[in-house]
Write a structure and sequence with these properties.
heterodimer; A: 242 residues; alpha/beta; Rossmann fold; 2 domains; 4-stranded antiparallel beta sheet; 9 helices; globular; B: 322 residues; mainly alpha; ABC transporter involved in vitamin B12 uptake, BtuC; 14 helices
Chain lengths: 242, 322
């Protein structure tokens, strides 16, 4: 089966500083894959290219059999790529429900239909009781959930999660893992996550890519990757907690 | 929330009955309030809903006024045809400014400066357009009538009052509907965080352009009204930046992004300003510029003590919608 997302030899530099170099990986449909790596390894840069924030300098990004390099973020979203932001970006002045409705309107014809869809999604993410609060009043874990809810409302086939577990307590993290597992199993949602929280990565990911200084230095199943000498070296001093 | 409808009904009855109760001076003040309520509502679509700050809305008032005024002055074409020309020109201008700014990533304060620039050089252009009267102004033939002549938009003051009331009510209804529609959700998302809005599939360029075009069109209509209400047009007055500021003061004081803020702000500001002018006249003080100082003070107080405007707090206390 061909991959849902294929990143082929993608490179990106900022003012001569190499952020991503010749990176390749793919995500098969229905998979949950993770990208890990130390800070500054280029994870978010890859995400931003897939989400259309900026185009790659070289290489190709293929989604669902279609070359999507250089599309705008809104076109990427319409094509079926949903994303969350590492630094959460809620619509602070709007209610939690209205935040999600904005996302749901992409696929729904009416506001009423979008509202219904949004209510269901908020329930799934344990935010139902906070629907009418202003988004600005949410705690950080809830804001992370809201990021996910909003992205899910656009009904993506591929969901990009940028460090949604950071700042969550272990129990909240496990709860989130369950949500993603459920979405993956029941709705066939393909997920690519960037994550530092290894607890979540090990629980979710079927395949891990390790980025170091903009290059993919290891690929494989979680249990193999965390034993890879090259990976251990780039995490030198940091113990990967399994 | 459910007290909104009865209060609106009371307000409607009061405003409909008003001309039959008050004198001609009060009627002219009321017309002025409605005028600012309407233009404030129009400006609010751009800034309050979509978060795009315009400090040059006098441009659309002036272009609307001169479009309809010129057709009438040179060709005796009535204001209803002029209205369409005004709408077309204002939409085109709005789209041109919006495209220039948004396409090239000009936003925030720099966008506001661009709107001022357009209003200013249009003012200078009109100053040099002799065919349009130049700095000496354009004077429409006045035919004061006691009967309503809606076709030519000539009639007694009460006709202008009801016209402005209809426009203000229409603008309120339109904005209330927009806020609950897709456009309202998208605009507010763009206002709150444009990057996040884009990531949710919103073509932000297109929706911002729509906000500017609609705001410009609505404001242009007020220009047509102005031309036939005052019958004389001077570039130095109608395009002046102080006119743009007057437009935004209402919504800023009442509450940016709210539905009743622009209306309340216009009422508070106009009543206070007229009151002060009257009081000063009674005291025998001749002091030009005191109105501007007064605007400055009111704005200062509101920004310091009620940064969200008067309406949001008041609405909460009254238990009505925004």
């Amino acid at each position: 089966m061909s991959a849902l997302l294929e990143v082929r030899s993608v490179s990106k530099s900022f003012h001569g500083l190499r952020a991503v170099h010749d990176a390749s990986f793919e995500v098969p449909p229905g998979a949950i894959n993770a990208l890990i790596g130390p800070n500054g390894a280029g994870k978010t840069t890859i995400f931003n290219m897939v989400a259309g924030v900026y185009p790659p300098d070289a290489g190709e990004i293929v989604f669902d059999g279609r070359r999507i390099n250089g599309l705008r973020p809104d076109q990427m979203c319409a094509a079926g790529i949903g994303r969350t932001f590492q630094i959460v970006k809620p619509f602070a002045g709007l209610s939690v429900l209205d935040n999600v409705i904005v996302g749901a309107l992409l696929r729904e014809k009416s506001v009423a239909a979008a509202r219904q869809v949004s209510r269901d999604i908020l329930e799934k993410l344990h935010l139902g009781s906070k629907s009418n609060l202003p988004a600005s009043s949410l705690s950080l874990p809830d804001r992370k959930r809201l990021e996910v809810a909003r992205a899910l409302a656009t009904r993506p086939t591929l969901l990009l999660l940028d460090e949604v577990m950071a700042g969550l307590r272990p129990i909240e993290c496990d709860q989130m893992v369950e949500v993603f597992r459920g979405l993956n199993r029941r709705e066939g949602l393909t997920i690519l996550l960037i994550e530092h929280v290894m607890r979540a990565v090990m629980a979710l990911a079927q395949d891990i890519g390790v980025l170091h200084q903009g290059e993919v230095i290891a690929r494989g199943m979680p249990a193999e990757v965390v034993r890879d000498p090259a990976v251990l070296e780039c995490y030198l001093g940091e113990e990967i907690e399994v | 929330m459910n007290r909104t409808a009865p209060l609106l009904a009371v307000l409607a009855v009061v405003l409909l009955a008003l001309p039959h109760v008050v004198g001609s001076y009060a009627l002219s003040v009321a017309t002025l309030i409605l005028y600012f309520a309407y233009t404030g509502q129009a400006w609010n679509v751009m800034m309050g809903f979509a978060g795009q700050l315009s400090l040059g809305h006098s441009l659309y008032v002036g272009v609307g006024a001169y479009a309809a005024g010129t057709l009438f002055y040179h060709y005796e074409i009535g204001p209803w045809a002029g209205l369409w020309l005004a709408l077309a020109l204002c939409v085109l201008l709005g789209l041109a400014i919006g495209f220039l700014a948004f396409r090239f990533g000009i936003s925030g304060v720099y966008f506001a400066l661009l709107t001022i620039a357009f209003a200013e050089f249009t003012r200078l252009g009109f100053d040099h357009a002799d065919w349009l009267g130049g700095p000496g102004g354009m004077f429409l033939r006045v035919a004061q009538r006691d009967t309503w002549d809606l076709a030519n938009f000539r009639g007694p003051p009460i006709m202008y009052y009801y016209t402005m009331l209809a426009l203000a009510a229409g603008a309120l209804a339109l904005c209330a509907w927009l806020l609950r529609s897709r456009a309202g959700y998208y605009w507010q998302a763009i206002r709150e965080n444009e990057e996040a809005a884009r990531a949710l599939g919103i073509n932000t360029l297109r929706w911002k352009m729509l906000a500017v075009a609609l705001s410009a069109a609505m404001t242009g209509v007020s220009g047509v009204f102005l031309a036939f209400y005052y019958n004389n047009l001077f570039p130095e007055q109608i395009f002046h930046i102080s006119r743009s500021i007057e437009i935004i003061l209402g919504p800023v004081i009442g509450g940016v992004g709210t539905l009743f803020g622009p209306i309340l702000g216009a009422a508070v500001l106009t009543l206070l300003s007229e009151g002060i002018t009257e009081a000063l006249a009674a005291l025998g003080w001749e002091s030009p510029g005191v109105k501007q100082v007064f605007y400055g003070l009111v704005l200062l107080m509101v920004v310091m003590f009620l940064p969200n405007g008067i309406w949001p707090g008041l609405a909460r206390r009254m238990g009505v919608g925004r």
